[in-house]
Structure formats: structure tokens, C-alpha cells
Design brief:
seven-stranded antiparallel β-sheet; about 20% strand; globular
Length: about 220
């Protein structure tokens, strides 16, 4: 099973929060109405850089889906086959197909691959050489957007795995009144309500960013080992 990074490494991007005043957030579930939207002055440079890469990758991925001859890297060609099959499936099966496929990419620590503690890779870079938890979540996010799921139903969530004492990142999907988790730990998708050892810190999609709680704040009630 892949491991995640120590908590401190996931919050370099949130260092500016120390200079911003927030009311206590403590919203323990993605898409909760009480989750605070982060103000524009709070920058998340790793996510912003990943978004720029995603915009470039989307052109290549769209061409790949349209023309198999333009889709030569083996993993990208396999992604195309998965996506074409998933497009005909019900949404629950789409989530499972994307989660299972992306989880086949090798887990590689950012420090080993990029020489930095934390790096958010766009999908094609991740497919080419592997990555860690947020890279899996990003690739799943982009794949589900390509399958037609709107951004408002998707959030990449950085959270504390309370049971392991580690930071982690997953993709949360709101579908049919449930919040589903696509996790590189497991090929099966799960309801977030079942994963009581996951306590969110913050979440992002291409349109907004949300704060659940700051590092050092207590774990919300119901989020336990």
C-alpha cells in the first residue's frame, strides 16, 4: 500500500493562512454547506500550477479521445480505451472504472521523482512517471470532467488520515445525494460517511477553494480512528 506524506508537507501551500483570520470552520464533510470558501488573496501555488498544466493536457487528451493514432504513449492509449468504455456505463460504474484505472499508475514520492517535498502533477506527467496521492486525485478529476461530470460535483480534498497520522488527498464526488470517495488506497469507491478516519483540511476544484479546518485545530466530532 502506498504511503502519504507527513502532515507538514501538505501545508506549504497554506502558509499564507497564518495571516488571514477565519471563523472556526470544522466542516467535516466535503460539500457541507458550512464549508468556508477561501478568499481570492489566499494563493495555492501548487494547485494553480497544476491547473495550468491541466489546461495544456486537456488539448492532448481531447485529441487522444478523438483519434487513436494521436494517442501513442501506452498508458494514454489504455486511458483512451477505459474512457470510451466508461462513457457507455452508468455513473457509478464510471467512477469505479476511473478509480481502478488511475490506481494502476505507480506510486512515487515527490521527493524521489521531482526532488521536492510536495508537487502537484498534471495528468500526463503523472501517467508518464507516477506520483503520489494528490496526483491520483487530479488525474481522476480530469478524467471525470472529460466524461461530463461538472466541476461543481468534484473536489480534490486534502485531509488528515487520523488512523495513520498522515496527510492524504482524495477525490470527492457528489452523486445521487451521496459524497463518494475515489482513493488511491482502494480500488473500490466508498461513501465519505463510511470513512470516519478522514478529517478534511481543505478542498479545491477548478473554480473555487474551501477551508474545512486549519492544521492544529481539533478533529471534528465523528471523525475518529
Amino acid at each position: 500500500m502506498p504511503v502519504s506524506c507527513p502532515l507538514s508537507s501538505r501545508f506549504v501551500a497554506l502558509g499564507v493562512l497564518a495571516c488571514v483570520t477565519f471563523a472556526p470552520a470544522m466542516a467535516s464533510v466535503p460539500f457541507d454547506a458550512h464549508v468556508q470558501v477561501l478568499p481570492e488573496e489566499v494563493r495555492l501555488p501548487r494547485w494553480e500550477a497544476a491547473l495550468r498544466g491541466i489546461q495544456q493536457d486537456r488539448v492532448v487528451m481531447r485529441t487522444c479521445l478523438d483519434d487513436a493514432d494521436q494517442c501513442t504513449p501506452p498508458r494514454l492509449a489504455a486511458w483512451r480505451q477505459m474512457m470510451l468504455a466508461a462513457a457507455r456505463a452508468p455513473w457509478h460504474e464510471k467512477l469505479e472504472a476511473v478509480n481502478t484505472f488511475v490506481n494502476q499508475v505507480p506510486y512515487v514520492r515527490d521527493l524521489d521523482r521531482f526532488g521536492v517535498v510536495d508537487y502537484w502533477a498534471p495528468p500526463l506527467q503523472f501517467f508518464a512517471g507516477g506520483g503520489d496521492c494528490e496526483d491520483y486525485a487530479i488525474a481522476k478529476y480530469v478524467s471525470l470532467r472529460k466524461l461530463g461530470l461538472p466541476a461543481e460535483r468534484l473536489r480534490i480534498v486534502v485531509l488528515e488520515d487520523v488512523a495513520r497520522g498522515l496527510a492524504h488527498a482524495i477525490l470527492a464526488v457528489r452523486l445521487d445525494g451521496e459524497v463518494w470517495v475515489l482513493d488511491n488506497y482502494y480500488d473500490a469507491i466508498a461513501r465519505f460517511s463510511e470513512l470516519t478516519h478522514y478529517a478534511p483540511y481543505y478542498a479545491v476544484n477548478e473554480d473555487q477553494r474551501w477551508l474545512h479546518r486549519l492544521p492544529g485545530e481539533p478533529v471534528p466530532a465523528g471523525r475518529t480512528h
